[in-house]
Each structure stands twice: as structure tokens, then as C-alpha cells.
Amino acid sequence: MRARGVLSLLCVGAMFAVALTQQTNRPKFWECPVDLFFVLDTSESVALRAKPPNFYIDQIKSFTERFIMELKEMRHPCDRSLTWNSGALHYSDEIILVRQLSDIATERQALISDIKGISYIGKGTHTDCAIKRGIAELLIGGSHYQENKYIVVVTDGHPLTGYKEPCGGLQEAANEARQHGVKVFSVAISPDQEDTRLSVIATDQNYRQNFTAADNSRSTQLQTIRSIIDMITNETKDVCCSFDCNAKGGPKGPGGDIGSKGETGRQGMPGEKGDIGVVVSIRSGHGSILLTQKTCSVINL
After folding, report:
1. Three-state SS string across 42-80, please?
2. For 43, phi and psi rounded to 5 degrees?
């Protein structure tokens, strides 16, 4: 009996903990979360651009770490705060999820630590597949504002046009992002990249510009980071400052009370004249009796 009581207390405690966690993870009204997902190219074409092979891989990691450090909560004029969720993957001809979307307010250092742990993969470059995986990561979690979802792709633009891309190609990946309302920034690893393909990746011409992740000048790298952040904060201002109530509907309520009896209806129209009933004549020694079905009457004859 005592064991059953302890088990009941444990169940109640577990339910309370789950409810508390859900309440804690739920965005506050004044928070306007923005999702930013990094898609990082660590393929062979990147690694072999310089010696040692990890030179540009380290540059990409450094750029991403610096970017994450710049993601700061910002208050809009409408008294709502822009907050950040961020995650990352890196890829070659395979995709490795570095970290799923996480709240930067509590998981910033964990995400940076995971970025530091990225190692060179090598082999082919399946950028189309990586972008589609990034889209999927944005759609399964993060901000409840569909307009506040962004991807930053850092790549050298390889392979060149004509190479068989297994997930439909860059154009298809960019179109899929547009269909889901996901905005994609295209960042070159260094200035001398395949700009045509980088422009295809970007879902808007403003999302390409002259963005560079690896440069001898630290100021150029920071300029890219701050330009992208400024664009995102300006674009999300209208979404964050609109107060349309689109809360989820609650459960179906209980049935209502039985209504009162309605008023008596109007008298109907007179019916048609009926048919003549069957006439039965009964004769006896005392005379005749006529029965009519219609009137149910007896007539002595």
C-alpha cells in the first residue's frame, strides 16, 4: 500500500515537472523569436583551397562563432524583444547536424562549443541537400512566426554547373525555401568564389551582396555579420510589432442545457374534403339499419 502511495507521488511529481518545463520553454508574450540556421560547407573543394587543409575550415568555424556571439536580444519600439534561436549543420556529400535550433539565451556557449568541434569531412559538395535539410530543421521547431526563419549558407559555390546534384539542384532548393517562407543568405568563403551559383542560393538579391566569411581583414568579416543581422532585425520589425491574436483553439467545451419548449405553431390550412365512406345496410324483422363508415352513425329505417 505504501509503495503504491509513493508511486502516485512520483507520477504527480513527474507530471508537474513536465508542465513546468513546457511553461518555462513557452515564449513570453513580449518575446519575438527569430530562427537563424547555419549551413556550412566543409567539403574537399573548400579544404584544398589552401594549406594546411584546415585553414578555410577554421575560418568558417571562426566566422560562425563570431556570428553567434553577435546574436543579442534587441527591443523593438513596440516594447517587444527580438530573441534568437540558432543551430547549424556542416556537409560535404554527407550532412552532419551540429546542433538543432536552440535558444541562444541559454544555449549560446553549448552551440559555440559544438561549432568548435566541427572537423573536415572532404569528398563531394551536396549543397542542395544541405539547404533542404536546413529548411527541415527550421520547420520542425523554433519560432512560431513563419516569417522569422533564416538560413546562412557559407560555401565556395562549387561544384560548377553541370555537376549532378542529388537533391534537385540549387535552384530547386532555393525555390523550396521560398515556398516555405524561409529566407536564405549566401556567404562566400572568400571573395574569389563562384558568384553565379552563390546568387542562385540566395532567395533575394539583397541576401547575396558581397558577404564574405573568410578574409584577412577582421573588419570585413564583422561587416558581413552585422549587415545580415541588421537586415534581419529590420525585416522582422513589422512581424514582431503586429499584435494579431492567433492563439491555438482550446478543447471542445461541454454540451449546453436543453432549450425551453418552443411556442405553439400557427394553425394549418383546412384539409381536403374526404371520400364517401362505405354504406352497410342491415335488414331485420324490425326494419333496416344503415351504417356509414364516414360518420360512424346508425340510422334506423
Report:
1. CCHHHHCCCCCCCHHHHHHHHHHHHHHHCCCCEECCCCC
2. -80, 180
Q: What is the pLDDT of residues 97-126, one digit of tens each?
A: 999 999 999 999 999 999 999 998 878 889
Domains in the chain (CATH in brackets) are 27-235 (3.40.50.410), 277-301 (no CATH)
- C-alpha cell of residue 178: 521560398
pLDDT value at residue 32: 94
Residue 94: CA atoms inside 13 Å, Cβ hemisphere, count?
8
| CB atoms closer than 10 angstroms to residue 83 | 21
Cβ–Cβ < 8 Å for 44, 122: yes
Burial of 291 by CB count in 10 Å (0-12 exposed, 13-18 middle, 19+ buried)?
A: middle
pLDDT, tens digit, 9 for 90 and up, residues 157-192: 887 655 678 899 999 999 999 999 999 999 999 876
Spatial distance between the Cα atoms of 99 and 84, rounded to a whole number of angstroms:
14
Q: Say yes or no to pLDDT of 16 above 50.
A: no
Task: Give dist(CA 54, CA 51) in Å, integer.
Answer: 7
Cell of 256: 449546453
Q: Strand 149-155 to strand 31-41: parallel, antiparallel, or no bridges (unpaired)?
A: parallel
Pairing mode of beta strands 74-75, 81-91:
antiparallel
Q: Name the one residue in this structure whose C-alpha cell is 556570428.
A: 67
Alpha carbon distances (Å) from 80 to 187, 197, 294? 30, 37, 85
State the Cα–Cα distance between residues 34 and 85, nearest whole angstrom: 6
Say if residue 139's pLDDT is above 50: yes
Residue range 214-267, pLDDT digits in tens: 876 677 889 999 999 999 999 999 999 886 555 556 788 898 888 888 788 778
**Omega within 30 of 0 (cis) for the link into 191:** no
